Task: structure prediction
Amino acid sequence: MKTHLQRIYSWIDERVELQGLVEYMGKKYVPVHRHSIWYYFGGVSLFLFIIQVVTGILLLLYYKSGEELAFESINFIMSKVQFGWLIRSIHSWTANLFILSAMIHMFSVYFEKAYRKPREITWVTGIFMFFLALGFGFSGYLLPWNELAFFATKVGTDIAGVVPIIGKPLMIFLRGGEEVTGATLSRFFGFHVAVLPGLFTVFLSIHLLLVQRQGMSEPLDIKKETEQKTMPFFPNFILRDLTLWLLVLNLLAILAVFFPWELGKKAEAFASAPAGIKPEWYFLYMFQTLKYIPGKLWFLDGEILGVLLFGIAGLLWTIVPFWDRKSSRGEQNRFVNYIGLFAVIYIIIFTIIGWLA
Amino acid sequence: MNQIPEIPENKSKRDFLQWVLAGGVTAFLGAVFYPIFAYLNPPKQAEVEVSSVKAGKLSEMEKESGKIIKFGTKPVILIRTANDEVRAFSATCTHLDCTVQFRKDFGMIWCACHNGKYDLNGRNISGPPPRPLDEFRVVIQGDEILISKKT
Result:
């Protein structure tokens, strides 16, 4: 048996020089320090993404897009298909945990200043993936064609519509017309299962390649300590990663079984928005902010101001490696910490208010 | 030493070729991307221009109640007030496109999405809506409620 595997290995090695790569991986070390725990969230996010791909493909086998088919097909998956309820529930739960895990990963990288030179590209590709993840969430939310999703999509695409100049064409592009209809559903389905996964895979490949090539970043304050503890990436770190993945899978199973995802009521274009309507939790802080901005402020429409503020904040967040020069020089930058803290506190407080409202 | 004789630069010929090349590339890109962008833009569906709709019977509507009716492709909210007036407004919230509802407990028109409130004349009185709701004309013929666009 072993000789067989060895023969296959040397067959490949002879052609693509696998040995060098294996040696490289063998020499890779992960720094061990009091902030090491944060290294695991990237891996967890990756695992959750893989689950999304697998369960997403499974859902595709039965899902039908279309105003008269979407809701019914999910209902069919959940009530008739064996373990359909499980697959759909896991897909919905994983979507939420994925965003949460990616958020933790993003903020930990931010506070450790791991985005500093030479890892700017890793940061930017990560942020792009985070935005894509939000796009996955937004487009996937509509696919069951239920009441909540219908109004969430109306509001979300209308917000895109208030952006000056490009807003209106963008809204029509997203909706596939003036209104949210079956045409919107078709487009969102296409974005969700083809466009976004394609883009995501490109950024993910670059991101992972860079992480392997450059190794893990170490926090600035740890670097000063003289003695450096490390752990081999293979097998020590990988095994810990896998253990955590197994725990996450268990957590998902528990959530999916004991808190199955609701399907809700079918969307009806001529019904009032139901009381207590809310977007998914990761859009809640923005939603709550929109509630507080008055209709007219100075000469601007309230929504335009909201969109503009979040747009600028998102842009500054994306390019932090380029304006935080201090961290790249290896100096502490407290200003960046305060901004990060403000963002975290703002998001938490507004999410809680939105949740309770 | 052998020196390579300098070839006199034929500037006008080079310029000409560059223009041809640049023009060709531009035309090529245009020919590729124009159809794609045009394809992305959904075609205008021929909409039946609705000028008025029947909104049901007055006797079937309680006082202090409201309902959503179809006006072509748009929702319209029909309200019968406490002092027996019947009014109709566009049901599309002027804030972010949600569909509003009549709230008997508030005595107002309310949007669930961002807590926008309108009075029973359609005026935005609280919350984020930037404009009042458009009013529709209501005509009652016998028991039949007819709604039409205000001109």
